[in-house]
Amino acid sequence: MRMTISWTMGLAMLVTVSRSAFALTGTITVNTTSNADNGFDGRCSLVEAMRAANGTGSYHECHVSGTSALNIRITSSGTISSSLDIQPTKPLIITGTGLTSTTITFTATPDSGCGVIAFDYSITLNNMTLQQNNGLGLTGVCARSSTGELGPAVVLNGVRIQSFQNGGVAIAAGTLDGTNLIVQNNHTFGSGGGIGVFSPGVLGQLNNVSLIGNFADGSGGGLYRDPISVGNSNITNGTISGNQAGLGGGIFMGTDGDYLQLHWSVIGSNHAFSSGGGIYVASNCSSGSALTIYDSVVEGNSADGGGQSFYADCPGFANSIYTLWGSPLDGFINDINMDAGSKVLSQATIQNDFSPLSNTGAPYFLPVYVPTSTSDARNMAQCPGPVDVRGVARPQGPGCDVGAWEVL
Question: What is the pLDDT of residues 220-251, one digit of tens each?
Fold first, then answer.
């Protein structure tokens, strides 16, 4: 009888502790850029904070405080070097001091192959830059599920992901959302140089996103969405430029019925080594509209095969509304349903219609193409949409401007 009572009490205590650990709340403060596990040295490093978050909330000098959702707050500006992946074992928020003031550099390739991995548990990253050292083959941010169910949510706010050599972001489960996101200069031997969304992963809502200078040996230099992906997707105030891939230099969009909608965006100066320099739409040719692009600019893209600006497996599975299509154009542009307000301008070029791609300096160092004073992108868009990429109200002047930038 004593053994039975003891075992029962022990089991109850174990269950209580496990539930308590899972339901952990509060803030853990990282107060150093040194990332060593140095015991009781008076500082809480990121690696120690992760051990506290993944455990009972206390590890060396790292302790949870308060009742907020579980989060790690980095208060020291500078670069944090990590030889380990960041893999929470419960939902977690990690917040840095700013996109340009907190950088996490990964110095080794962990077993997961990812810098940050949401494996069954959701993660939110705020106000930081992620990058890898030269010579590694990491993916910047990953989402996976051990159960094949819906999986974790990944939210990226005020985050830059750069220079990873196995893709910037790879979502193979759960949903990706973000605001003020920069994904630049990443490469993959597969598909999705900047962002790759693979079934059953879902691309949700991205606001103020820049996919710049990414490269995929396969498809989707800037963005790849699996042809059997599910869930509807929206990109607002996007700049997708300077990306390269075999198919879909800027965007490779696949669907079995759900859609991608682009709003107030610029898809410019991308290249495909086969087809779809700007955008490639892969569909099952049965029903629905795989892609609708509103109040945007598709301009200055190129392809060694067909479809300088646009290529589709099936004509009529993409809609253009109040969007400017510039040169170079070819016959594949006829596969788009050109609806209200769209313009096709064979003489337009990035060089004479927009100012050069550059860092704006505010608010999140997002690269933009700004319409010139004579640009056909001026005053041609619908105006019920959002503020521009800086938060400036639309319109400024007699009408709204297409693309991510409203000219003052």
Answer: 999 999 877 677 899 999 999 999 999 999 99
Is pLDDT above 70 for 12? no
158: left (phi over 0), alpha (psi -120 to 50) or beta: left
Angle, CA 254 vertex, CA 177 and CA 199 arms, to 5°: 60
Look at residue 213 and give its three-state secondary structure: coil
Could you tell me how many residues make up the chain? 408
- How many beta carbons lie within 10 A of that of residue 307, not counting itself? 28
CA dist 20 → 28, 86, 120 (Å): 17, 22, 18
Strands 25-30 and 65-69 turn out to be: antiparallel
- Say if CB 242 and CB 272 are below 8 A apart: no
388-397 burial code (b ≥16 CB/10 A, e <16): bbbeeebbee
Which DSSP string do the residues of 314-330 spell out, in sequence order?
A: STTSEEEES-EEESS--
Residue 350, both tokens: 């990035």
3-class DSSP state for residue 396?
Answer: coil
Q: Which of 134, 127, 203 shows the shortest CA–CA distance to 170?
A: 203
Residue pair 4/36 in contact by the 8 Å Cβ criterion: no
Q: Retrieve residue 31's tokens.
A: 């107060």
Residue with tokens 């819906």: 150
Report yes or no: 316 and 332 within 8 Å, Cβ to Cβ. Answer: no
pTM of the entire predicted model: 0.92
What's the distance, Cα to Cα, between the start and end of the chain in Å? 81
Considering only CA atoms, give the Rg of the chain.
23
317 within 8 A of 286, measured Cβ to Cβ: no
